Amino acid sequence: MAGRFAPRPPRTTVRGGDAVLPRRTAGRVRALVPAGPLDLGLVLGPLRRGPGDPTFRATPDGAVWRACRTPAGPGTLRVSARGGQVRGEAWGPGADWLLHQLPDLLGASDDPALFAPRHRVVALTRHRRPGLRLTRTGLVLESLIPSILEQKVTADEAYRAWRLLVRRFGEPAPGPVPVPMCVTPAPRTWALIPSWEWHRAGVDDKRAATVLRAVRVAARLEQATELDPGSARKRLEAVPGIGPWTSAETVQRSHGAPDEVTVGDLHLPGIVGWALAGDRDADDSVMLSLLEPYTGQRHRAARLILLSGRVPPRRAPRMPRGDIGRL
Known about the structure:
The chain is an alpha+beta fold. Helix content is 39%, strand content 12%.
């Protein structure tokens, strides 16, 4: 892999593919030209778990920073786009792995041309958001653990738990990060977190136990990236506490799975029902029926619906917010 990213002469140009630029800093650098429109915010946004996520940062210059635990070790990736070219710069032991994965991270393995809009709201959003691609991280645990933390709680509670645990037990991200960032804890570190630290972060025993069961078979779960999304979900759901909601939320990010729609969500069925049929009380069965014309691309259709801004009028929240860390 080192040879693939070896520096080339300073005047290397990029036409219709990708090239490795000369090393100008301590980071490893790769540049590529996307095959079509690319919106970094839309593509990488689903990887951020709340505004204070210590593994993710978007800076005012339009760049996106990610701190990751890769198969090669910790790494930090900075991605920026300018003049039709995307530039990735990476630091740490996982730098080469992150640069190798960069095309898939930016949706190179995704094919939006396979999608055919069947509803006006979907077609209009697709026209307005041509830069949407489905990211494929190639990493399972970094999406699985925060998805477990999001089970049956509000987003704010889950984001707080993720933020506190990663900052407390993760390690500093390598490279010249714009703000302090952290790489997620290693599986063994997750397994050794004391019960009172889970409690302090607001994580109940059920979710904590699910994370512990998952990290005990971390290597087996990471190997699921070699499987198709459906088979990967079956492997994830073999772990007690991981159900269809959690597995879908994971493979959407780890595999860039265009058809793995989330079921069991508190809000998504009503949003899809409202946008496509004016039915704010739609349940999972209604949602799946409405998305049936998009079979093979149901997750992409749901993403476009969410981006459309067509949401039903608000009602009083049905899920109370709690903080077991104060009990």
